[in-house]
Structures are given as structure tokens and as C-alpha cells.
Amino acid sequence: MTHDELAEIRKAEQERKQKYKHKINVCMASGCLSLRSDLVKEAITKEVDKECLADSVLVSKVGCVGLCSQGPIVVLETKGEVREGITPEDAEAIIKSLGAEHDGGNSNELVDGVVLRLDSKFFTRQKKIVMEHSGLIDPDRIEDYIAVGGYESVLDVLTEMSPAEVIDQVTRSGLRGRGGAGYPTGLKWSTVAKAFSSSGEKFIICNADEGDPGAYMDRSILESNPHQVIEGMIIGAFAVGASKGFVYVRAEYPLAIERLKIALKQAEKFGFLGHNIGGTTFSFTVELRYGAGAFVTGEETALIASVGGQRGLPQQRPPYPAERGLFGRPTLINNVETLANIPPIIRNGGDWFAKIGTEKSKGTKVFSLVGKINNVGLVEVPLGMPLREVIYDLGGGIPDGRTFKAVQTGGPSGGCIPAEHLDLPVDFESLQQAGSIMGSGGMIVMDDASCMVDVAKYFMGFCKSESCGKCIPCRVGTVQMHAILERITDGTATMEDLGLLENLCGLAKNASICGLGQSAPNPVLSTLRYFRDEYRAHIEERRCPAGVCKFKNAGKDVYEEDLEVRDETGTSS
Amino acid sequence: MISFEKPSPPSDDRRWKLVDRTMRQYGYAPDAVIQVLHTVQETFGFLDIDAMNYVAASLRVPLSQVYGVATFYHFFTLKPQGEHTCVVCTGTACYIKGAQDLLDAVEEVTGAKPGETSVDGKVSVLTARCLGACGLAAAAVYDGEIAAKVTPDAIKKQVHEWTDIVEEAAGSPPQGIPTTPPEGPAPQNPIIEGVTAE
Ligand SMILES: Cc1cc2nc3c(=O)[nH]c(=O)nc-3n(C[C@H](O)[C@H](O)[C@H](O)COP(=O)(O)O)c2cc1C
Ligand code: SF4
Ligand code: SF4
Ligand code: FES
């Protein structure tokens, strides 16, 4: 494939699309699909055929539009309208409405409560780089991606740039890893590029494990535009000198897997994968590996073990995977969203990217807004946008007339941010200062009916069951911390327990091998920091201010009894 | 190099051909253990000792490694499942929107807690750590198909279609039989057969 051939495909595809007067996009990402958007597409296609409009109306399957909880979503692209909650019965009305004149008037107005305009706040306040084509192109057609400029960056890189120049652009962009830790991507790439491999072999792994409960942006990216991630991988492989790539994707994401498989086949067929890509000497292949339901395998060293067919146990670092990773070779590991940022960075230049975002946090970030919020879904915003805007302008605020209490960011490694910090700009540094982290970008919004102790207990329970058990501070610490939180929500804890809890938090944080144990205390520490009085209410007054905890064992001293029994039998240690 | 003879499958069940195909696809590489176990579970519903032995011998890895992998990952189960599976997502979004109420509702009907199968062998109840369907919380998976915005009544209705255990037992249903450790997602994993994309 050469530049000219690519341009030809692009032109042909664009011309094909321009022939149509109207374009109707039906979201078929997993969210809408589970609300049977496939039937909606079928009905609309039938209606188009019935009205003999097949020459003027194009009905396509697309990826996530972002308004996942209101599905099935249909986008009337040419009319600039997004419709929510569409059923197959609405097909006729939708086709009819195509004929109606565009009102052009008040563009933010909702007609019938089911129409949202593409120029409404929800869309205009976002800045889409990663999700730019999501909801607009068919993820299963490589031609659709090529039509919007896809795979051009690969050819540019292979024919016109040196690996060092590619790394330079990525470094200049200021892109930081989107998988959680926010490590500068350019720096990581140059480390792997410099690393020595005795066999000359290097690997690149795309981390699509996404174990964070409450986050699903990686899934959505893979389901909406897998080619953008593959393109990022090819560029990364060229930059660091890798000959083979792996996508480690969760088995819980069957649709993402299926679309990845299709995309890989197409990329191969079009000559973007395989031998001598673009007529150059560069060769690169990608293989899929499935996760099997363990949160800890998202951690780099555990991921490497798992790709190698082992249990996913983390290793002490150094050596870092950049030096000694998969099969002992230098390995580049990047998150899905990180890689999806690469093609636009190459296309527009690192300096373009560096202009977006804040001083130290460049670019955009995809957030999944979930929990007690009106627009449950995905948004992509420039870093540095105040939390308030994300939650109220894009998220549409809190439903049922309730009030905002806190937002949990960063999943089990993160923390809660209370209402008084709503004006915080969302970037790596400010979140950390507030006692939380960006993590993979899940935002779980909680209203006044949520109990913060219960939330801390939930996350500790998660870490307890997901701990791999390799090191004691994490394996035993999470169990004990969870037990204390259980006693607090049961009404059997004392203030001494609270001290013990804080002690254990420090221990696990400082003495665990990997990030899971090191960050497991974060949800507890951040809720203790901002909602200490809730803990006190539970312990001293045996009262749950939010009315969530049931105090099943209040006043029964279950814990003491437990100890006595063990003492009698003489088996306690 | 010592010559290696591939062992023959534990039985003449034709389904072993699917497992063989996956092993061949990965060139019998030892690092394909997880991929092959996925195929075994997809084909037979669970991993038994014969299967693990066969995989270990074919890929030339110790049985302890195969067993270690099979028990480490939540996705794998060593015991057969009920005819139907009902997976309740317990990810954060679903937890906030009442995943516990759903589990209680299912238990009320089937008597089975997460990781158990109803006594009539009809329904296995499982939980998943996050289906990535947070936009649709609370989510559940019925026999491999995601259901959105599930309510306790809806889940009861679905489970009732599979089992009539409550009528039999008159009153509270009998306890379920443990099958897998809790926190395992659906054994129906449509990786091999395509999912419902079109
Ligand atoms: C317990 C644990 C779980 C993790 N899970 C994920 C994950 O699901 N996806 C991911 O991309 N990174 C995850 N990470 C972070 C990765 O280890 C790694 O930092 C990241 O994939 C690097 O890519 P990036 O630089 O592009 O962010 C996890 C880390 C830890 C400690
Ligand atoms: S002593 Fe127990 S906890 Fe420690 S490694 Fe052995 S089995 Fe595991
Ligand atoms: S911190 Fe926890 S998850 Fe990480 S290695 Fe130790 S026991 Fe395993
Ligand atoms: S899944 Fe359809 S809008 Fe996100």
C-alpha cells in the first residue's frame, strides 16, 4: 500500500458517501446493542427499502455516541440530530422526519424530549481526539476509517520519518499514559527504543484489560474504532523497533474482541500488518490474547506473565518491562487510549497536541460518567476542565432532585472528591493533590443517599478478592481492613478500630509489591479525609447518616465472641 | 532434541477437535495455556482434570501450571454449570444502582447464592466484577446476553422462566449447590462463536 493507493481508496469512499442525501447512524456499541439497537437498524433499513430510498439514505452501524444510558441511539448526521431511546416502531417516523424542513431556529431545544442536537452543549463542550470518529464510522469497515484519514500516519511514519523523529513528536506532545499512572509516553518509548535485545526481538503490548469497575472507555474505543488503536500500535512498534505486538483484551468484552479480530484481518489484507509494510523493510504482526477475569493482570508485570500463559502474579521492579519484559525481551506496554492518541498526534504534530490541556497534563481524556448522574455515558474533554463542568454541563447534574455528595475517580486505586472541590480542574496533579487519582478515567458520581463508609468498604472488598496473594501486606492487610470496615458498617466497631484501620492503610501502602496493594487504601484514606464525621457517626452513634448501612450486628460484640471461641480451643496464635 | 509425540485426547468426543485446532493455531506453544483453556471451557462448559492433563501434556507444561492458571483466573470453572446462567454485575456502577438487591432477588427464587447452582440444576448464579456496561447499570447477563437496567422484579421473572423451584418447595427455596468460587463471569464466552453484532 502506497500513499497514492491509500488516497485513491479514501477518495472513492468519500465520493460514495457524498452520493447520499442523508446519513443515519445507529449505535451498535455494546451498550445500545444490549438494548437491541440491531433490531432498530434492521427496521430502519427495511423502511428505507420500502420507501425506495436506498439511493439517497445511507444507514450505517457505528460505535458509541456517548449517551449510553439513553440507548438505543440513532444519529441523523445530515440533520444534526441525535435521537435517544429509539425502538423499531420509530423507524417510519424517523424516515418521515428526513423530509421535514430543518427548523434552524433554537438549536439547543429538545423536541419531544427524544431529540438532542449535535450542536448542543453535550457535544460542543467536548473535545474529541480519541473518540473523534466514534459514532460516525462503521468499526467493521476499514474503508470508513481510511475515508477520515486513517492509516495515513502509518505511511507517513514509515516512509518519511525515522524512529527518533517519531519519538520526538510523541515527546513534544507531552502525552502521558492513560492507563492510570500517567507516565510520559515519549520517555517510555525512548527507553524501549534504546534497550538492548540480544535476539534483536522487541514486543509491544496493548493493555486492554480494563479491570477498573466503573470504567469502560477502552471497551468503547475498541468497539467504536479498533483501527485507530491498531494504527497507534504499528507506529509504536516502528518507533521502538518491535516486530510483534499483542493485544491483551478481557474475555468479558466479546464484542470488542470480535471487532478487533475483524480489524486485524482487514489491516493485514490492506498491507498495514505483515511483511514489508508500505513497501518498506518494516514488518510487524499483532496477536490477540484474552484475559480471564483477574484485575491484577492489568498491572504490567502481571500482564506479561499472563500473556506468557502463566498466573498473573506481579514481579518486583526493576527490571522494568522496558528492559526485560515478555519472554525476557524489551517490551513496550501502553493502554488502549494512549495508543489511540498516537495517529492524531503524528498527523497534526506534537506541538498541536501540547496546546490542548494544562501545563503538565496535555491533551484530552475520556471519562466514563456513571452512578447518580443524568447523562450516564462517555465524554472526552480537554484536561483541566473543572469538575463542575464535567458533572453539570456534560453529565447533566444529579437526577431525582438530589444533591451531589462526592465523585469517586480512579477506581479501587483512587479516592473520593467532595462537593467543596467541585471547581478542581481535572488533571493528573490536581486530582492527586485532592487525594485521588485520574486512573483510567472512571467517574462514579454519588448523591446524598450514598454512604461513604459503605463505598470504601466496597472497594476494599474488591481489592481483597482481587489480591493475587503474593505478598502479605496486601493479602492479609486487605482482608483485615475489609473486616474493620465491615464492623464499622455493622455497628460493632470502636474508635480504636479506626486507629488500627489507619495504621493498616499505611502498612499496605508502603510495603506491598505492586500497585494493587499500594493503592488499595486510597478509597479509605480519602473518605477518612473528607468524611471522617460519617465514620464517627457509624462508630459512636451507631447511625448511618445516609441510611445505607443496616447495622445487622449492632451491640452484639460479634468480634469479641469470635476471639473468645478461638482462645478456648487453644488454636489461636 | 527429544522427539515429542502429541498425546491423544481423553475421549473420542469430537469436540476435542476444536481444542486441537486452537493448540495447532498457537503452534503448541507453552504460552498458549490460557488461550487453550478458553477453548476447552467454551466447548465443554468447564475444565475437568482430564482436560487439564491433556492440555498440559500437549503444550508440554507441568500440570501444576495448568491447574494454577485454571484456579487463579475467575473466568475458569472446574465444575459443570447449570443449564442456564445468570450473571449479576457487581461493578461499582451496578453496586451503586442496587446489584445486591438483584442477588437477593435471585436467591429468593432459586435458593442459590453467587457461585451456586439451584438444586434442580437449572440455574447457576454468578457475579462479574464489571461488564463494562456501566452506562446501563444495573446490568446482568442471561445465558450470554447482556440485559440492561435490570430490576429485582425483572430478574425474578427471567429466573422463573428457567426454574419453577419455588412452587415445588412451597415456601423458601432449598439451598443451592456450590459450583464455582464467586466472582466469576459467565462461562458462556462467545469468543469462538461470534456474538450478536449483526
Ligand atoms: C492493579 C493494577 C491494575 C491495572 N490495570 C490496568 C488496566 O486495566 N488497563 C491499563 O491500561 N492499565 C492498567 N494498569 C496500569 C498498567 O500497569 C500500566 O501502567 C499501563 O498499562 C501503562 O500504559 P500507559 O503508560 O499507556 O498508561 C494497572 C496497574 C495496576 C497496578
Ligand atoms: S505458606 Fe501459605 S500463604 Fe504462604 S506461600 Fe505457602 S500456601 Fe501461600
Ligand atoms: S500487592 Fe497484592 S496484588 Fe500486588 S503482588 Fe502483592 S499481593 Fe499481589
Ligand atoms: S453504547 Fe450507544 S451511545 Fe454508548
* Low-confidence residue ranges of chain A: 102-111, 560-573
How is the main sheet of chain B built?
6 strands, mixed
Contiguous runs where pLDDT drops below 50 for at least 5 residues of chain B: 180-198
Oligomer: heterodimer
- Specify the overall morphology of chain A: globular
Structural class of chain A: alpha/beta
Beta-strand residue fraction of chain A? 5-15%
Distance between the termini of chain B: 49 Å
* Number of E-state strands of chain A: 14
Q: Outline of chain B, from the CA principal axes? A: elongated
Instruction: Please state how the strands of the largest beta sheet of chain A are arranged side by side.
Output: 2-1-3-4-5
Mean pLDDT of chain B: 81
Spatial order of the strands forming the largest sheet of chain B: 5-4-1-3-2-6
Compute the CA-based radius of gyration of chain A.
25 Å
Written account of the structure:
The complex is a heterodimer of chains A (573) and B (198). Chain A starts with a helix and ends with a helix. The model of chain A is unreliable at 102-111 and 560-573 (pLDDT under 50). Chain A is built from 25 helices and 14 strands. Chain A has 573 residues and is an alpha/beta fold. Chain B is of the alpha+beta class and 198 residues long. Classes of the chains: A alpha/beta (573), B alpha+beta (198). The interface between A and B is large, with 63 and 54 residues. Bound molecules: flavin mononucleotide (FMN), iron/sulfur cluster (2 copies) and FE2/S2 (inorganic) cluster (FES). Flavin mononucleotide (FMN) is lined by residues 177-181, 183, 207, 209-212, 296, 298-300, 333-335, 338, 440, 514-516 of chain A.
